[in-house]
Every structure is written in C-alpha cells, then in structure tokens.
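Sample intake sheet
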Amino acid sequence: MNKSNQENTINQENTINLDRSKIDNPNKENINIDKINLDKFKQLINEIRWNPEGLIPVIAQDAESAEVLMLAYMNKEALYKTLTEGKAVYYSRSRQSLWLKGETSGNFQELVDILFDCDKDALLLKVKQNGMACHENYFSCFHYRPQLEAERKAEKNWQVVADPNVQPTLSLGRTLEILAEIIKDRKQERTEGSYTAYLFNKGIDKILKKVGEECAEVIIATKNASLEEIRYESADLFYHLLVLFVEMGLDLTEIAEELNTRRK
C-alpha cells in the first residue's frame, strides 16, 4: 500500500484499537486491527528510543499460553506494517530487509496486543502463533538449557527442553479463562441449539441442579477409583460451575483473589 492509499484509510480516532476477541473466544472471526491514525503513529515513533541502527528489539509472546516465542527486531516501517496489517513484520539484520513472519512457512503471528517497556527501548508483542515459531520446528525459539553442572562435563553443553512440532498445553487457569469468555458469549447470543444457551434460558434452578449432579458424579467416579471417570466428570463440573459464575456475574479473577488470600 502506497502512502496516499494509506492516508485515505486513516481512522479519525486517535487510538490503535486491537480486537482481542480471537484470543478471548477462538470461535470468533480472525482478529481485526482498526485503522491507525498516521499523526498518532508519528508521535509514537518519535517517543521510541531506537538503537543507533534505527531498530528496536521485540519479544514475541504467545497470547494464549503466555510462552515466550522469539526475539527479533523492528524498524519504523516494520512496526507500521505490523500495526496496520495485523501480522508480525520484522526487520532482518542479516538480509537488511523486512520479513513477514510466516511468509514462507505459513506460521504467521497474528497481532493481539503490543506493549513497550518503561524505557521505550524494547517491545513486547502478544500474538496468536500459528504453527511453530522457531525455524527448528519448535513452538518457541527458547528451547535450549545450558548444562553447567560439574558432573556433566562429558555431556553436551545444551539440553533441549521441548519437543519439536508440539504446541504447549494450556494451563488449567488459562483454559478456564477462555472457556468462561465463550460461555459469556453464549449467554449474550443465546445461540439456537447451544446447550450453554439452553441452561441460561432455563435459569438458575436448572444450572444449580446440574452443578449438584456433577458433584455427585465426581464423588461416584472417585469411589470407583477410575482416573478416566474422575477427569471426565471433573471437566463437566468445571464447565457447569463456569456457567453458574457467569449467571451470577462472578468473575474468575474474584475467585483467584479469594484463593490467594488463603495462601500461607
């Protein structure tokens, strides 16, 4: 896109609006980056502390798992393209040119959020990582741990701490956060044929009945000493508790705060 075309698409709002719904609800459409005001962008780049080569280091982090993916660099043009196109564009110091992450591999990084450090000389890019981030086919480039113990002198200096072509499993907490967002959407949209919408339509008594039933199922599974049943029924219980929380307007952060007050 040339400069004149870019200027014709400027939004009059003085903000960079990042739609985070792709992470909050994986079933929604692809992330939408709002149009950026060129005047605000010029102010932004003037406040950034670029290095002598006109670059800024960028840490890319997976927004779902919070795993650190890679370190790269951006110049002003790369930052602008990233903000306006919604996919991570970096500057290659070896090739002296821009590169769209995933252009050849298909492992694009969709922009979710962007943060600067306190000195404004480093950038954190929160992204939705498609496929593997590392050219060695690991999800994260940070998969080597130094081996410094004296008794391991004969071994390799580096230990690989990840498996190739494997995305990390989301933590229980993050999984519940994503599921809670989906349940909130179901309550608002009342999608026909949705079991979650059915529960909300029936009301609190039906939801409470299901929570009670799932509690009993967990107890029975435990008495049967079946780990598979315990896992399955516990997942059902977690789900119905989330429906209850949404119905009552109770946020997961409030429960986290309560649990944290009990730590000793």
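Comment: Residues 168 and 264 are 30 Å apart (CA to CA). The chain is about 40% helix and 15% strand.
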